[in-house]
Amino acid sequence: MKKILFLFCFLLCQLPTANCQLLDSAALAQQKTFFSLQDALLKPDSVFKLNLSKKKLKEVPPQVFQFKNLQVLNLSKNSLKEIPPQIGQLKNLQNFNAASNNLKRIPPEIGSLINLVHINFNRNLIEAIPFEIGNLSNLEIFEMWDNELDTIPDEIKNLHNLRVLELRGILFSEEDQRYVKKLLPNCKVYFSPSCACANKF
User: Fold this and answer.
1) For the purposes of burial, counting CB atoms within 10 Å of the CB of 171, is it exposed (0-12), middle (13-18) or buried (19 or more)?
2) Which secondary-structure segment (H or E) carries 26?
3) Measured at the alpha carbon of residue 68, what is the angle toward residues 66 and 70, in degrees to the nearest 5?
């Protein structure tokens, strides 16, 4: 009977949708960070942390989506104009950093990454947050500093574990700021001083 149970658990962990490889923060901290896509491709199943910051990337290399165990992905300080929908394939992703690029939108597929804890989209050109963001029930830190946001979706109120929402560098009226805080009563929301502009929401 024990052999049968062992075999069942082993097979379950081979399923692509299973989170058997999800590491806790202490174990994740001990994992090697890959700074080279070429090195990472030599051991794709062992890639938990990938840092491709400052690589002058104009698009996300498609090979990134082969790393099914990836939990930390840093694409910051490149020249990316979009995050492809394939980002939704990285089901184990916990920390995603795409700060300081030229992104204009967040793909709705990000809503399927339910293990995300920290997202950083600071210093981009993003005009809207997709309503699918409300699916990220484990999200704790959401950084959107210095973007071009016109609206905050009501679905953000579903992020009950959100502790920090960074919205500095974006012009919001005082009424808009009150509205966002009302959506997230238990979250620390950071704004720049309010403007005398028309309400966005």
Assistant:
1) middle
2) helix 25-29
3) 105
Please give the angle made by the CA atoms of 111, 176 and 195, to the nearest 5 degrees: 125
Q: Choose among 109, 110, 98, 148: nearest CA to 126.
A: 148
Please count the CA atoms within 13 angstroms of the CA of 15 that sit on its side-chain side.
8
Question: Is the separation of the CB atoms in 154 and 130 below 8 Å?
Answer: no
Strands, E assignment, the chain: 33-34, 49-51, 72-74, 95-97, 118-120, 141-143, 164-166, 188-190
Q: Given this model, what pLDDT does residue 124 score?
A: 98
Distances (CA, A) of 112 to 79, 86, 89: 25, 11, 8
Residue 200, pLDDT score: 63
Per-residue confidence (pLDDT) for residue 151, from 0 to 100:
86
What is the per-residue pLDDT across 105-125, written as a single tens digit (0 to 9) for each? 999 999 999 999 999 999 999
Q: Which of 106, 28, 107 is nearest to 70 (CA)?
A: 28
Rg (the chain; Cα; Å): 18
Number of H helices, E strands in the chain: 4, 8
Burial of 172 (0-12, 13-18, 19+ CB in 10 A): buried
pLDDT tens-place string over residues 132-171: 999 999 999 999 999 999 889 999 999 999 999 999 999 9
Calpha distance 33→36 (Å, rounded): 9
